[in-house]
Write a structure and sequence with these properties.
The chain folds into two domains: about 260 residues, 3-Layer(aba) Sandwich (Rossmann fold); about 80 residues, formyl-coa transferase, domain 3, CATH 3.30.1540. It contains 17 helices and eleven strands. The strands form three sheets. The chain has a six-stranded parallel sheet, sandwiched between helices. The chain has a three-stranded antiparallel sheet with strand order 7-8-9, with helices on one face. A hairpin with a 4-residue loop joins strand 7 and strand 8. Helix 1 packs across helix 7 and helix 7 packs across helix 8.
Amino acid sequence: MSPDPSHSPLSPYTVLDLTRVRSGPTCVRQLADWGADIIKIEEPGGDDTGGMGGPRAGPDFQNLHRNKRAITINLKSEEGVEVFKKLAASADVVMENFRPGVKSRLGISYEDLRPLNKGLIYASISGFGQDGPNYDRPGFDQIAQGMGGLMSITGKPGEGPMRVGIPIADLTAGLFCAQAILMALLERERSGEGQWVQTSLLQAQVFMLDFQAARWLMDGHVPKQAGNNHPTSIPTGVFKTSDGYINIACAGQPMWERLKELLGDPELDHPDFADGSLRSDNRDKLNQLIEANIMKDTGVNWIARMTEAGVPCGEINSIDQVFSLPQVQHLGLSWPGPSNERGETNYLGQPILMSRSKSGIRTPPPGRGEHSDEILGALGYSEDEIENLRAKGAI
């Protein structure tokens, strides 16, 4: 899938990518897939076989770093910082997820760059924010999941805290930062000025508590673990059939009445289950009754019958089954494309469809410094000057 640049909404914008690991690359991927010119900046002579971002040929790195060009710059050298500042003078966005303080020590903070480019959007993701009592602690996804309350409401009651099976703080921080960049670019259309936009793993994780956070902020209720049950809407959860498990999400009285009619068990008419509050109070007893009925038939049959009756339900798939689903294939969530390290492969596609604008794989993840000469040449450096920078270890 190689979208026409004229149909890529972000094709006019240039982004300098200083990001590593996951949260920052997640942000940049959103911009890259929709057409922005991403210049990935890495250290010269780095190790591509592993590290915190995984090996360059690994699926994680490949998935995060498609649709970019690459240059190596030694930001610890005076000449390297000069090269970076020349790039920043004409760029639209600088994206970084260093620990707070690193960019200032390198001399490439927003304050350092703004005099060179008043329209520059400078975007930062950190573990806990750019200032405050915990700003300088190292931040990792699981730490944010714990500090941000998510692990206290995930898992079964009595079995201790449980992390979510994806790096949700990293991913959401990246997505929120991409949103912030787009808002800043829109605002720049009116003001002509850039700004520094920030988020953190902790901020993203706390925001993602959503209704669970609102239960505390508004009602003083501290949510607890509920396992596969929905915290407030019962019956919603995982139920065992004769050949596996399915999800049922029976939110609200009309859906409950439809499920009750479909199951046809007179015990479900007990006064203990008359309304949502009573069903929540008696959830264990209710779930046992439902499961006793559900176990009489297969998951496929129950899903067909419940869907026809208007009761939300669904299978519980492994990852390979997900990408075999006709609906997932129809939505184009697997993108075939080239890789320098792996040959033809498949990338995870964007979850957004637009009627005119397209996203897709334009270029594979770049090799380290693959486009250094091309990028520096466009800045006005001669071949001799580029070789001199290389000899000094600046690039």
